[in-house]
Amino acid sequence: MTLPMTTRTLTAFSAALVLSACGIDLETTAVQDITAPADGAFVRFFNFGVGAPSVNFYAGDTKVTAISSATGVEAASGVAYGGVGNAGLYSNLKPGPYTFAGRIIGAAVDNGLPISAITGSLTAGKYYSVYQSGPYDAVNKTVGGFVVEDPIPAAFDYSQAFVRFVHASENTNPMTLTVTNTVSTVAFTVGTAIAYKGASGFSTVPAGTYNIAGGCGATCNSTGAGNATTAVTRTGITLSAGRYYTIALRGNVTLNPATTTLANRLQFDFSTNR
């Protein structure tokens, strides 16, 4: 039904009066821009501490993992060894210096006890990964860790995949990582002689399925005890064009991945940054 002009004018005028009465300025009130990037820095958290219990991660006194956005209730399980907080998603934090800590969750004893103190400074607009890593001291209830920047550019190249290497195994010698395309058999070096707490830059590779191999020369074992592991492998990872990925080394080098399936064995973690 088409309203008469007078009716339409009065209807519009009435709506304007209602908005004005609510304190809304029709000329100066802007529509919210939900496409604009969030302010602050972006951080995600990994529990790679060998033998460490499940934890929730904190930035100072602020909990940043294990809270449900729907209910506000804390998850009882926390981030177990080998896991990543918030399903691998980044948390938005104010820029500045921080001490990040993993606090024990779900234990009858020591629940809430911080077991790590990982320092780092965050810059607005940048991405970071926090790794709780190294062997867990069950007597003193402490474990180490480090922070690396995830250098994800603002402008994306959708023609290639991007992959980098992070070394998070304390007792493993510097490692060189290669990925080999399962179809073309072309190998790409992702990081060369990357030491513990180090990270390579992102390398570009064609999209496809790849096998991973990491080598340390004569031996990967820096302890002088146990096995003489010389290489670590993983098969069948998929790299998609326009996406950024991290391959991280974790675990105890004295547990040879060729002879054991223990959770703490030396192995590669594979995650998507973006």
Number of helices: 1
What's the N-to-C terminus distance? 50 Å
Q: What percent of residues adopt helix (DSSP H or I)?
A: under 10%
Uncertain runs: 1-36
- Judged by helices, strands and strand pairing, the structural class is mainly beta
Shape: globular
| Rg for CA atoms | 25 Å
Annotated CATH topology of the largest domain: Immunoglobulin-like
Instruction: Report the count of strand segments.
Output: 17
CATH H-level homologous superfamily name of the largest domain: Domain of unknown function DUF5300
CATH architecture of the largest domain: Sandwich
What does this protein structure show overall?
This protein has 274 residues and is mostly beta strands. 6% of the residues lie in helices and 41% in strands. It is built from 1 helix and 17 strands. The strands form 4 sheets. Strands 1, 4, 5, 8 and 9 form a 5-stranded mixed β-sheet that branches. A 4-stranded antiparallel β-sheet has the order 3-2-6-7, with no helix packed on it. It has a 4-stranded mixed β-sheet with strand order 13-10-16-17, with no helix packed on it.
